[in-house]
Every structure is written in C-alpha cells, then in structure tokens.
UniProtKB/TrEMBL annotation:
<dbReference type="Pfam" id="PF10200">
    <property type="entry name" value="Ndufs5"/>
</dbReference>
<keyword id="KW-0813">Transport</keyword>
<dbReference type="GO" id="GO:0005743">
    <property type="term" value="C:mitochondrial inner membrane"/>
</dbReference>
<keyword id="KW-1015">Disulfide bond</keyword>
<feature type="region of interest" description="Disordered">
    <location>
        <begin position="81"/>
        <end position="101"/>
    </location>
</feature>
<dbReference type="GO" id="GO:0005758">
    <property type="term" value="C:mitochondrial intermembrane space"/>
</dbReference>
<keyword id="KW-0249">Electron transport</keyword>
<keyword id="KW-0999">Mitochondrion inner membrane</keyword>
<keyword id="KW-0472">Membrane</keyword>
<dbReference type="InterPro" id="IPR019342">
    <property type="entry name" value="NADH_UbQ_OxRdtase_FeS-su5"/>
</dbReference>
<keyword id="KW-0496">Mitochondrion</keyword>
<protein>
    <submittedName>
        <fullName>Uncharacterized protein</fullName>
    </submittedName>
</protein>
<comment type="function">
    <text>Accessory subunit of the mitochondrial membrane respiratory chain NADH dehydrogenase (Complex I), that is believed not to be involved in catalysis. Complex I functions in the transfer of electrons from NADH to the respiratory chain. The immediate electron acceptor for the enzyme is believed to be ubiquinone.</text>
</comment>
<feature type="disulfide bond">
    <location>
        <begin position="27"/>
        <end position="60"/>
    </location>
</feature>
<keyword id="KW-0679">Respiratory chain</keyword>
<feature type="disulfide bond">
    <location>
        <begin position="37"/>
        <end position="50"/>
    </location>
</feature>
<comment type="similarity">
    <text>Belongs to the complex I NDUFS5 subunit family.</text>
</comment>
Length: 101
C-alpha cells in the first residue's frame, strides 16, 4: 500500500484525499487513527511505527482475510460434495425462517 505520491505537485495536494472511508461506519475510525498516526510520525517513519494500524485498516477496507476464509470454507464444502460426504438437502445449511429478521 503506497503511503505517499511518487511525484508531489500542487495537483497531488489538491486531489490527495478525494477517496476516503469517512462516510462508512465500518472503516472510518480505523482510517482516522491510521492517518493521525501517519501525521504524527510522517510517511517514512510512520510506515514502521503505524504498521499495525495500517494493517488493520487495510484488512477492513479490502477484506482479504475474510474473503480467503470464505473461499476456504466454500472449497471444503465442494470437496465434501465431490467425495459424497454431502448430498441433497445437506449440501448447504438451511436458511433462516422468513420472520427471523
């Protein structure tokens, strides 16, 4: 994840924060904490000092571990289906009742 622009100009300063996560409840606080940490230490030292905050924010934004976990569970379910361990109605879990929400 890049922490700063390759070439700085007034245009990069103008458009630096066009995309952010502040309007989303899920990642807004993590983004703000990581930006505050980077502002305190700078982008070069902050990459090492704020690595845990940046990793948490990156996971919240891109969901790489969550997607990998979903794919692993899906492949295990398919493997069980291919080997005959799951059949018919037991292939997927039953859905919740209609009035459960």
């Amino acid at each position: 994840m890049s922490l700063g622009p390759f070439f700085r100009s007034p245009f990069t300063d103008l458009t630096a924060s066009m995309v952010n996560f502040q309007q989303y409840d899920k990642c807004g606080e993590l983004e703000m904490a990581s930006i505050d940490c980077l502002e305190a230490y700078g982008t070069v030292r902050g990459a090492k000092k704020c690595a845990d905050l940046l990793a948490d924010f990156q996971e919240c934004a891109f969901m790489t571990k969550q997607i990998a976990r979903f794919r692993a569970m899906r492949m295990e379910r398919h493997r069980q289906g291919w080997n005959g361990e799951r059949k018919g109605d037991g292939y997927y879990a039953p859905p919740p009742r209609v009035d459960a929400y």
